UniProtKB/TrEMBL annotation, chain A:
Localization per Swiss-Prot or TrEMBL: Cell inner membrane
GO cellular component annotations of the record: plasma membrane
InterPro entries the UniProt entry points to: PqiA-like, PqiA-PqiB_transport
Residues spanning the membrane: 51-71, 99-124, 145-166, 178-195
Record's protein name: Paraquat-inducible protein A
Pfam families associated with the record: PqiA (PF04403)
Species of provenance: Aerosticca soli
Entry keyword set: Cell inner membrane, Cell membrane, Membrane, Transmembrane, Transmembrane helix
UniProtKB/TrEMBL annotation, chain B:
Key words, A-Z: Cell inner membrane, Cell membrane, Membrane, Transmembrane, Transmembrane helix
Lineage: Bacteria, Pseudomonadati, Pseudomonadota, Gammaproteobacteria, Lysobacterales
Protein name: Paraquat-inducible protein B
Keyword Transmembrane helix part of the UniProt annotation: yes
PANTHER family associated with the record: INTERMEMBRANE TRANSPORT PROTEIN PQIB-RELATED, INTERMEMBRANE TRANSPORT PROTEIN YEBT
Organism (species): Aerosticca soli
Record field: transmembrane: 27-48
Keyword Calcium listed: no
Biased composition, class Pro residues, residue ranges: 536-549
Taxonomy, superkingdom: Bacteria
Domain Mce/MlaD: from-to ranges: 51-140, 166-226, 294-400
Length: 208, 549
């Protein structure tokens, strides 16, 4: 008995909201915390399935988000549609490499990072792998932290659309790409929220 | 490792409330399914909108950008440039265009593509909108059904869009002049069409132009319409001053075609599509009655032909009926003279009504030559006359010269030779020469000499007057002045003569007074004359000057 006992082993479950510790209910029962009424479960129900679902949906939307133009800028009658990547290229070419790097990091790297990290976490959790558990836990916290920060593009487009309204001289219009990009970010956030980090530590075959 | 081993401290923990399970976790798979459906629908939509891809070859890709330049038909976007590449021989630019699904009919033979850029030409400015929005590729759909994926782009926008209302006509001309594709066509100085194409004739001896006249103005092109090249400026110096006539300044520079119906009664049926017309050099030629076949005549002038040029008009009673086509010198060995042989083409039909009547009359005179013989017998002669006094340009006038010397006329000669008469200007020249001769006979030399002698005599006389008469006169005047001076001194108020005269007069007065006293005393005392003066009261005081004595 080197490892400390786990709540499951003790037949206990803690409320995730108010911290109340209760006796574990039957295996199929849906229990509620007697103190605060929050749903009480050992692990988030269907965590892996939900995370996978959201992640896959996010990945599907990520394709049109990159292929479709996200923003139309009209300056002096010159209409210019930009996708995320062409916007980055344009920023770089037109002499703002710093901005290009920021946009590239927020719009391309961060979502990709989230996909890879979440997929890794899910695969490892499914296989109950003992590989790099501490690092995986850190990765999860990182992904959770980044969260909506990759909404940068959406913020930029909505801000510009609202601010730049000079008719013929200058105008910014959102295009469908930005919707798909927003959906991608939201779905990755949902995926990371659905993931139960405690699964990282459920390495026993008989654990729930 | 079971619950029974560690019962103690957890027994008092609360039992959780148990509820019915509501949601099956597997329903969450609806989310990616939905996402997949959306993505799929996007893909299907994109695939459905995918039209044919065509390639267009241009001379230059100026203003064409990949992923940006649009293809427009009637200003509706029907496609977008995907890529711009060089052709294999690097002489052309190949533009790859993805057409929309709805624009499939634009990938057929006969469709024309061109790059719409701002163009500033002499005929005007076009495509100004593209200055700001950037160039685009314009398209004009053909009526063919044959599919085609490679097109050669036009360098200029086509002059006529397919399906535009109007008619196209064919003009035939000797040369193109300053016309070009897009040159305007004017009707009563209103722009109603443009030149749409031109090409050399098969035999290379002329140019065939196609013009397009927009509807509804195409109905003014009647069967008898006359077309002329409106690019020139007609400057005419007439009795009413200088007149400059042109269609418009742009036409002068860039060229243009004008048409109008001839004056007078004519066929006003609108001409059918592709009717052929002749393009005349200018309005006057276009409006002139038709020339008909030309008749060559030769004239022999015994005078200098200076000022007469090939192309100079031949006028009959002031009506232009032909032009000079050749000028040569001949040698007359018998008279040792060099007569000028002037050949001219006459168009008798230009005489209009007179020609018709003459032609009728000619029948009774044994053909046209016979009629000409009669006219010559009546004094018809060719004369060279000055057309322009400033430049000395001459023209040939056919006129009836009264009292013309009899001339021989051979009606069967080939070519016909018209008798000539010295021009009126030659007579004028003779008269001028006579006047000059007379002026030359005046003895200006001796007149000058005599005048010179007279002037020399006058000069001597004047010298005498100056040298002798004038000094004496001067002295005389000086003497007279001295005399007058002394007279002046004698007569002045303080002169001794004056003073003495005053004293004398005073003495005389005094004497008169004593004489009066004496006479008065003698009047009263006449005895005193004898006895001498007695003592008596003194005589009364002399009267005041105002009282009479």
């Amino acid at each position: 008995m080197s490892a400390p006992p786990r709540a499951v082993e003790l037949g206990l479950v803690g409320c995730t909201v108010c911290g109340q510790v209760c006796r574990a209910p039957g295996p199929l029962a849906q229990a509620a915390c007697p103190r605060c009424g929050a749903v009480l479960r050992r692990r988030k129900a269907g965590s892996l399935a939900r995370s996978w679902a959201f992640l896959i949906a996010a990945f599907i939307f990520y394709i049109p988000a990159n292929l479709l133009p996200i923003m139309r800028t009209v300056s002096l009658g010159d209409v210019d549609d930009n996708t995320i990547l062409s916007g980055v290229v344009e920023l770089w070419v037109k002499g703002s490499p710093d901005l290009a790097v920021i946009v590239f990091a927020a719009s391309i790297m961060v979502p990709m990072l989230k996909f890879v990290v979440l997929a890794t976490l899910l695969v490892c959790a499914q296989r109950r792998s003992r590989w790099a558990q501490v690092q995986r836990a850190r990765l999860y916290r990182l992904v959770d932290l980044i969260g909506y920060w990759s909404m940068l593009d959406v913020f930029v487009v909505s801000l510009l659309t609202a601010l730049v309204r000079f008719g013929f001289f200058s105008e910014v219009e959102p295009l469908p790409g930005v919707i798909y990009f927003g959906l991608t970010v939201i779905l990755t956030m949902l995926a990371s929220m659905s993931f139960d980090p405690r699964l990282t530590w459920d390495t026993d075959k008989d654990a729930p | 490792m079971s619950d029974e081993h560690k019962p103690g401290p957890y027994d008092d923990l609360p039992e959780p409330a148990v509820r019915r399970r509501r949601l099956n976790a597997s329903l969450i798979w609806l989310v990616p399914t939905l996402a997949a459906l959306v993505g799929l629908s996007l893909a299907v939509k994109a695939w459905l909108q995918q039209g044919p891809t065509i390639r267009i070859s241009f001379a230059s890709a100026e203003g064409v950008e990949a992923d940006k330049t649009e293809v427009k038909y009637k200003n509706v976007v029907i496609g977008r440039v995907e890529a711009v590449d060089l052709s294999e021989d690097r002489k052309r630019v190949i533009v790859k265009v993805a057409l929309n699904k709805s624009a499939e009919s634009f990938a057929t033979a006969g469709t024309r593509y061109w790059v719409e850029r701002p163009r500033i030409g002499l005929g005007g400015v076009s495509g100004v909108g593209t200055l700001l929005s950037g160039s685009y590729i314009g398209a004009d759909v053909g009526d063919s059904q044959e599919r085609k994926a490679f097109f050669v782009g036009l360098e200029n926008p086509p002059a006529v869009m397919r399906g535009a209302p109007g008619k196209s006509f064919v003009l035939h001309s000797d040369d193109l002049g300053s016309l070009d594709i897009g040159s305007p066509v004017y009707y009563r100085r209103i722009r109603v069409g443009r030149v749409s194409s031109y090409q050399l004739d098969e035999d290379g001896k002329g140019v065939t132009l196609r013009i397009f006249v927009d509807g509804p103005n195409d109905r003014y092109v009647t069967r008898s319409a006359r077309f002329w090249n409106a690019s020139g400026v007609d400057v005419s110096l007439g009795a009413d001053g200088l007149k400059v006539n042109s269609q418009s300044l742009a036409t002068v520079i860039a060229g243009g075609v004008a048409f109008q119906d001839p004056p007078g009664p004519h066929d006003t049926t609108p001409a059918a599509e592709d009717t052929r017309f002749t393009l005349f050099a200018d309005r006057a030629t276009a409006m002139a009655p038709p020339d008909g076949p030309g008749q060559y005549v030769r004239m022999r002038f015994d005078q200098s032909v200076r000022g007469l040029a090939v192309g100079a008009p031949v006028e009959f009673l002031g009506v232009n009926i032909g032009r000079v086509v050749s000028i040569n010198l001949d040698y007359d060995a018998g008279r040792q003279r060099f007569p000028a042989l002037v050949g001219a083409l006459l168009y008798p039909q230009r005489l209009g009504r007179a020609y018709e009547k003459l032609a009728a009359a000619a029948a009774s005179h044994g053909g046209e030559e016979g009629l000409l013989g009669t006219l010559v017998a009546h004094g018809l002669r060719a004369q060279m006359r000055v057309g322009n006094l400033l430049t000395g340009q001459m023209y040939v006038a056919l006129d009836f010269v009264p009292n013309a010397p009899k001339a021989t006329f051979d009606p069967r000669a080939k070519p016909l030779e018209l008798p000539t008469a010295p021009g009126s200007f030659d007579k004028l020249q003779e008269q001028v020469v006579q006047i000059v001769d007379k002026v030359q006979k005046i003895p200006f030399d001796s007149i000058g000499r005599h005048l010179d002698d007279s002037l020399a005599g006058l000069d001597g006389a004047l010298k005498q007057v100056n040298g002798q008469l004038l000094p004496q006169l001067n002295r005389t005047l000086e003497g007279a002045q001295q005399t007058l001076h002394s007279a002046n001194g004698a007569l002045s108020a303080d002169a001794p003569l004056q003073r003495e005269l005053g004293d004398t007069l005073e003495q005389l007065q005094r004497m008169a007074r004593s004489l009066r006293a004496l006479t008065d005393y003698l009047g009263v005392h006449p005895e005193a004359l004898l006895r001498g003066r007695q003592d008596a009261p003194p005589p009364p005081a002399p009267p005041s000057p105002g009282r009479k004595p």
